[in-house]
Amino acid sequence: MTTLASIIVSIAEEMRTASERGTVANYIPPLARVDLDRFGMAVVGMDGATHTVGDAEVPFSVQSVSKVFSLSMALNAMGEELWGRVRQEPSGSAFNSIVQLENEHGIPRNPFINAGAIVIADILVSRYGRENAQTRLLEFLRPLVSDPASIDIDTDVARQERATGFRNMALANYMRTFGNIRNVVEDTLDFYFHQCALTMSCHQLAQVGTYLMTGGRNPLTGERVMSERNAQTILALMMMCGHYDGSGAFAIRVGLPGKSGVGGGILAVAPGVASIAVWSPGLNAQGNSLLGTRALERLVQHTGWSVFRANPWVANPT
C-alpha cells in the first residue's frame, strides 16, 4: 500500500538527484550563501498527522510567503474596505515591477506583488505602529505551531534587505505620490523588510498554513483565526497570484493554492485535506523554487489533491 510517508520519501530522493536546481536569490546576501542542495518537505493533514522529509526542520527565510500572513492580519483588521487600496487581480508582471502603477494610479494589482504587499504593510503600520506590527505578526503566527518560540525575524536579513531594497523604495515612494502609502515611507518599509525576514522551517510553515486548510480555525486550539470567507479569499488569491507571472503555470502543474518566496519556500494548501511546505533555495526565471514546484507537482500526481480534479480528494494516502 502506498502511504503519504513513502510518497514524500520518493519525492525527496528524486529532488536529491536532480541535476537542474535553479539559482539562489543572489541580490540578498544572506540568501546568496544558502546551500543549493538543501531540500525539505512537510505535510500536515486535517487529522494532525505530520510527515516530514529532508531538511524539513532547518529554518530558512520565508520572504514573500509572509505576505499571506500580513494579508490575513490586514483582512482581519479592515475587511472588504481593504480592496479600495489594493486589487484582487493577477498582475502578469514580475513581482517587483513598477510598470503598472502609473497606469493604475498607484493601486497595485494584488497583495502578493511587492507593491501590494507594501500597501498591506502600510495598513498594519497605521493600525499597530512600526515596531508593534512586528510583534503582532509574531503573535499571529506562534499559536499555530508546536514550538512557538523558535519562529522569529532575522534582523540581519532585514537589515541587508533594507540596504539593497532600492526597487522597493521606489515602489513605496511612487505610491506615496498617489496617497496610497500613508505613513513615513521608511517606517512602512522597515516593517515590510522585517516581515520578509521571518524565519521558520518547512515543518513550522506547514503548521502555520493549517488555518487556511481548516477554513480559518487554528486546529491546535479550535479557535477561529479569521472568518471562513476571508480564508477562502486568501486561497483564491494564492491560486491566481501566488507565483507572480508564473501563477498560471503553477495552477496547471500543481492545482493547489500556493505562495512562494525567493528564499526558496512554497506554502501550498489542499483545503480540508493538508497544508504543505517545501523548501529548495534554487529559483526559476520567475523567482519561484524550481524543485519546490516540481516536488508539489509530484505530490499532487501521487495523491490526486489538485482542486481541478472531478473528485479531488478521492486519492488520499495515509
UniProtKB/TrEMBL annotation:
<comment type="similarity">
    <text>Belongs to the glutaminase family.</text>
</comment>
<dbReference type="GO" id="GO:0006543">
    <property type="term" value="P:L-glutamine catabolic process"/>
</dbReference>
<dbReference type="GO" id="GO:0004359">
    <property type="term" value="F:glutaminase activity"/>
</dbReference>
<feature type="binding site">
    <location>
        <position position="244"/>
    </location>
    <ligand>
        <name>substrate</name>
    </ligand>
</feature>
<feature type="binding site">
    <location>
        <position position="161"/>
    </location>
    <ligand>
        <name>substrate</name>
    </ligand>
</feature>
<feature type="binding site">
    <location>
        <position position="262"/>
    </location>
    <ligand>
        <name>substrate</name>
    </ligand>
</feature>
<dbReference type="GO" id="GO:0006537">
    <property type="term" value="P:glutamate biosynthetic process"/>
</dbReference>
<keyword id="KW-0378">Hydrolase</keyword>
<feature type="binding site">
    <location>
        <position position="192"/>
    </location>
    <ligand>
        <name>substrate</name>
    </ligand>
</feature>
<feature type="binding site">
    <location>
        <position position="114"/>
    </location>
    <ligand>
        <name>substrate</name>
    </ligand>
</feature>
<feature type="binding site">
    <location>
        <position position="64"/>
    </location>
    <ligand>
        <name>substrate</name>
    </ligand>
</feature>
<dbReference type="Pfam" id="PF04960">
    <property type="entry name" value="Glutaminase"/>
</dbReference>
<dbReference type="InterPro" id="IPR015868">
    <property type="entry name" value="Glutaminase"/>
</dbReference>
<protein>
    <recommendedName>
        <fullName>Glutaminase</fullName>
        <ecNumber>3.5.1.2</ecNumber>
    </recommendedName>
</protein>
<keyword id="KW-0007">Acetylation</keyword>
<dbReference type="InterPro" id="IPR012338">
    <property type="entry name" value="Beta-lactam/transpept-like"/>
</dbReference>
<comment type="subunit">
    <text>Homotetramer.</text>
</comment>
<feature type="binding site">
    <location>
        <position position="168"/>
    </location>
    <ligand>
        <name>substrate</name>
    </ligand>
</feature>
